[in-house]
Amino acid sequence: MSDHATEHYVSTAPFDPYSIERLTPEQERYYLASQWRMMWWRLKRHRLAVVSGLVLLAMYLSIIVSEIVAPYDLHTRHTDFIYAPPQNVYFFHDGSFVGPSVYALKYRLNMETLKREYSENHDALQPLRFFCLGDDYQFWGLWEGSFHLVCPAEGGTLFLLGTDRLGRDILSRIVYGARISLTVGLVGITISFLLGITLGGLAGYYGGWIDNIVQRLIEIIRSFPELPLWMALSAALPVTWSPIGVFIGISVILGLIDWTGLGRAVRSKLLALREEDFAVAAVLMGAKPSRVIARHLLPNFMSHLIASATLSIPSMILGETALSFLGLGLRPPITSWGVLLTEAQNINVVALYPWLMLPVVPVIIVVLAFNFLGDGLRDAADPYKTG
Questions:
Q1: Exposed e or buried b for every residue in 270-292, given b needs 16+ CB within 10 A?
Q2: Domain layout of the chain by residue ranges
């Protein structure tokens, strides 16, 4: 070892705090952002997910004012226009701009096929009315009203998607049916989340015999094919139940079957997180298990739960649609997209009146929108995803 002390150089220059490299406002905003804000920034860059979210937002907002959005009341019948085809909307007539209008329908009975043959009467132009008074209705079954977003001309018709075998406007029935079909998914996912988070959380936090019981229960439920199990449970609903009772029963059935995947995801996350330092510290400080799970463990993957919810809701909507289509789900007078599709069970009717299949279009749109939004949320919630 050398006898000479190591020289230590200290600068005698005055300290200048402004000489230190500073973060730009944009960098500071990024580094100080919360997890939810960063998730929102990532989601905004996923254009398809944003568009899907806006579509779903518009559809869910429409169910609040279904009576106003629909051109006709749910039960309005036009006996002179049974199986009428969709009417086209025109903006010009004889070379002049006339605004959105339709031509009056006229029909004749084909005595050979006994089928009504409709055609447009170009001499009878019927301008559409907006923000108008039309069919009377009960808003959410509570208040009388007659205000509509769009109405046919006085004494005219407006069948943008045609009519069914009773002369009821299909577009209006699709708008009303959205209230039931979209709500089933929300009610079902609420039940599924409560069961999945509770049972999965207990299994992941405590382990041992509790974990074994929950895992065996999940394996038993998942061993049954979903559709036959849905059908069996739906068939067990009493036929004397009211429409609201059947609706609640279907929602509960969908929730009771769909929680297993979420329960396993929650269990696996909690098994890993319960050994982290922050969770151990909370236990040592005397926190109860319920507080440790709710305040410390679940928030660490809440964003993933939200993404899981957006991917689970479509399966519940499809489940309700399938059960109602098979006659084992919701039944008239309740109107849902699945109930509307029962009109299309006869292939001969579909061949003659293909517009009866149109209620399947909103089902496809909603399912695709939820899947695109779920993909965007899953990417945005990934903590290992950069940029």
A1: beebbeeeebeebeeeeeeeeeb
A2: 87-158, 172-381
